[in-house]
Write a structure and sequence with these properties.
The structure is a homodimer. Chain A is an alpha/beta fold. Chain A has three domains: 7-94, Winged helix-like DNA-binding domain superfamily/Winged helix DNA-binding domain (Arc Repressor Mutant, subunit A), CATH 1.10.10; 101-168 and 279-305, 3-Layer(aba) Sandwich (D-Maltodextrin-Binding Protein, domain 2), CATH 3.40.190; 172-275, Periplasmic binding protein-like II (D-Maltodextrin-Binding Protein, domain 2), CATH 3.40.190.10. Helices cover 43% and strands 22% of the residues of chain A. Chain A is built from nine helices and eleven strands. In chain A, helix 1 crosses helix 3, helix 1 packs across helix 4 and helix 5 crosses helix 9 (289-305). At the A-B interface, helix 1 and helix 4 of A face helix 1 and helix 4 of B. The structure holds a DNA duplex.
DNA sequence: CGAGGGTATGCGCATCCGGCATAACGGCAA
DNA sequence: TTGCCGTTATGCCGGATGCGCATACCCTCG
């Protein structure tokens, strides 16, 4: 094996070589590098062995790079530079000094809390660069897992993944039922879950809104029945269309009551236990100052809304 | 001091971390890296200390990257990749397997030898990528010194620098004198140097054609006089203009005889010792196969021309 | 509450790498 | 030529680094 050493320690020798070539002298470079000349001289020999060619022309007045030496400088100096700056950036990030904050949220669900919280954040930490990503709950969880998000505002869907990240419950909303305008239920001011027994439920694709169907099932259990999902469609808007065309019902978080959808009426559920938790998830490990600030702001907003 | 280790050995730990994250397990990564699990586990701790933040979430089923871990992967994986490929390229180059050949030459001087030599090279090593740079002798030497050229075809000017590089004499041309058409000398078939004693010489700027004036002086010494440079101009074409306008003379390599310049006549010098050497210079250190091939081709062409 | 997967820790030893002293080498001046 | 002064290279030793081995710890599942 020609190179007995590791690739990493080789980088140290390459750094040393860059200094030697800059100084044009092993002696002067050794001074700059705070080591002795023999040590540096041996490093250069080792590097030449590892690469398999001479890097320096030794002359009585100092050293000069060979063609290979020049090529090494040209290839390695920028790489070493990027490596160092990347390292510095990671160190800053480790100290929680990252100024970028990538937030995932579902606009319709999070708007009422996120907007005021962001206003607070801007006041306390105006230099933070925000990257807002309007995305589905599934995409939020995937984004967190892939390290592409620092923080996600997510509903009941995120409870499943709460173990993987730090989490805090922001508030719990009441639940409502979506029915067609023509449905008898539509006229009621509120409804008990058990009244839905036997109705056709409209489910939603697990891939897009993970756990939503299981949540509905869990909600109905205390009411004494298991919902039958007549159709499972992809996407919330399609669910509402199906509610109309199939005369089905579906359970939704309370913020849908503010929504307008042609032909659909939202009726609040009266059961005490039927709640929709809204939580914030953020990466484990030391959170950046910006992350902590936004989480705090969200908690305050949630407390005020309650 | 937070990081007691070197930046280079840190790269080894970063490499290890990349493997750990890919495998999702310190155990499996240790197998891949051919070290034991405790060793790798300690490397990860060391890296976390050096960066000042947690990189991995330890779970009973293995490990997962934290936000910082993800950021490190994103920043470092491409860098480590470039570093390795750059290293591989340098190793290839050290073994003389580089396929690019950067040649510096002065078209008017080198054309007669370079063209056939390149034809030979193309035959013996057709995969070699040539970069031809038509440049002044000074630029050629600077290019060699800066490692931007592999090989230079240069005249007498290069002899000064021959110690710094490998060199081979290709041929020696006779010398000619440039005089105005109206000059008495212009009618002669040839001329002895001593006949130029007392004439005004036209010199050329040292920065562009280094050593040319010194060469003329050295040439005249055996003839028993020291040329007086009435004017020193920059650039060969300006020299010829001055020859006409100032009725000066200048010494030039023989290949100028083939040139046409209005108002200037070139008269061969008869002195045996007055020769113009044409040499090839190439980088010290192990020369690439392509370099050696071109040098050989040039030598053959030179021998054939003689 | 043991078994079995994972990660962390204590300890001893080889290896590496730097410092010190000194050799070897080349140019320059007397 | 010889001696001097600059350079780089080499011999040797000691300290720190980092590995392997054995084992401790921790969590989950049956």
């Amino acid at each position: 094996m020609p190179d007995a050493h590791t690739l990493g320690s080789m980088m140290d020798r390459i750094r040393a070589l860059l200094t030697v070539i800059e100084e044009g002298s092993v002696n002067r470079a050794a001074v700059r590098l705070r080591i002795t000349q023999p040590a540096l001289s041996r490093q250069m020999q080792a590097l030449e062995n590892e690469l398999g060619g001479k890097l320096l022309e030794r002359e009585t007045s100092g050293v000069k790079p060979t063609g290979l030496g020049h090529a090494l400088v040209k290839a390695m100096r920028p790489l070493v530079g990027s490596y160092d700056t990347a390292l510095a950036e990671l160190r800053r990030q480790a100290r929680g000094e990252r100024s970028e904050l990538r937030v995932g949220y579902l606009l319709s669900a999070a708007q009422s809390m996120l907007t005021p919280a962001l206003a607070k954040l801007r006041k306390s930490q105006p230099e933070v660069k925000l990257k807002l990503h309007d995305m589905s709950p599934r995409e939020q969880i995937d984004g967190l897992r892939a390290g592409e998000l620092d923080l996600a505002l997510i509903g009941q869907e995120g409870v499943m993944a709460a173990r993987e990240f730090h989490s805090a419950k922001l508030c719990s909303l009441r639940v409502c039922v979506a029915v067609a305008d023509s449905d008898l239920i539509a006229a009621q001011k509120s409804i008990a879950l058990k009244e839905l027994k036997g109705r056709d439920f409209i489910g939603v694709d697990e891939a897009q809104v993970p756990g939503r169907n299981r949540w509905m099932t869990a909600l109905c259990k205390p009411a004494g029945f298991k919902p039958r999902f007549a159709v499972v469609v992809d996407g919330i808007t399609n669910v509402l269309s199906q509610v109309v065309s199939e005369s089905g019902v579906t359970l939704l978080p309370g913020y849908f009551e503010k929504l307008q959808h042609p032909g659909v009426t939202f009726v609040p559920v009266s059961d005490e236990k039927a709640r929709w938790d809204f939580i914030v998830l953020w990466q484990k490990g030391r959170a950046s100052a910006a992350t902590r600030a936004l989480v705090d702001a969200l908690k305050q907003v949630a407390a005020a809304l309650r």
